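Hey,

Quick one before I head out. I ran the complex with nicotinamide-adenine-dinucleotide overnight. Inputs first:
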Amino acid sequence: MAKSGEHPFEQEIDKSVDSEQEMADKPVYERDYDRQAKKLQDKVAIITGGDSGIGKAVAVHFAREGADVVIVYRKEKEDAEDTKTLVEQKGRRAFLIETDVSINANCEDIVRQTLAQFGKIDILVNNAAIQVTHQDLTEISEEEWDQTFRVNIYAQFFLTKAALPHLKAGDSIINTASVNAYKGNKQLVDYTSTKGAIIAFTRSMSAQLAEKGIRVNAVAPGPIWTPLIPSTMHKDRTEFGKEVPMKRAGQPAEVAPSFVFLASEDASYFTGQCLHPNGGSVLNT
Ligand code: NAD
């Protein structure tokens, strides 16, 4: 019979370890790492599509947290130079590689050049992508379907495969997916299909690499104001992203902290997961 003021089951619960002070093996509430000022001190990160948009914000945020970055871009040299300057203003090094990540040999070369420049790889951000809108599936040629897959998902396979022999416990891979992977997009069927593949790739690789202590996660942004948007869809920022609960497009700076989190030890118990900076869209994940 429970005493008055006592939960009826309480008497059946072993209360001998009710206090942390009485535990021989105490839970860790703060790690040495948590006391560091910078989350990514002296890490080396490869960021594809690091010249502009989300990749640029990731480069700047990584540098702010103490990382050196390799910025891989297709041909937007001015954007890449600008990002390099911003990284250097944070006191870190940026190395630019202009290349096409849809070709395997180029991805192997990115890894070679990174090792030659910085001697190691700690973080791989597979972020480069292309998209072209079409009203009807019949408008998409085999070549275009192929190219979208090559840039958006084959490149993630190529670069991950090339980097893998150089990754070690504590390292992290982050793949940029999209909200479209979860809700579909009738104008971006090929692009959206690659984003679904990226989620499956992320989950599969996380399972394969968990034993090695290498974490693999994804970020699935909602509508974010970057060069990809005016070049392929909306010219006007105020017209873009109105459909989400927050009724506006996000900024790359609102997405980059998800990458910092996943790259850092803060996310040491996260793998195979996807973060959703998307203005409040509720998804079936
Ligand atoms: P962005 O145009 O700034 O970035 C795309 C990058 O991909 C460019 O830097 C470009 O250099 C690079 N790239 C394209 N083809 C390449 C190739 N063949 N080789 C090497 N690099 C190549 O646009 P963004 O919006 O910042 O896109 C970054 C990522 O975010 C993409 O994966 C995109 O799918 C994803 N995303 C964007 C949004 C959005 O609303 N902007 C939403 C969801 C997901």
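The chain has a mean pLDDT of 94.

Talk tomorrow,
K.
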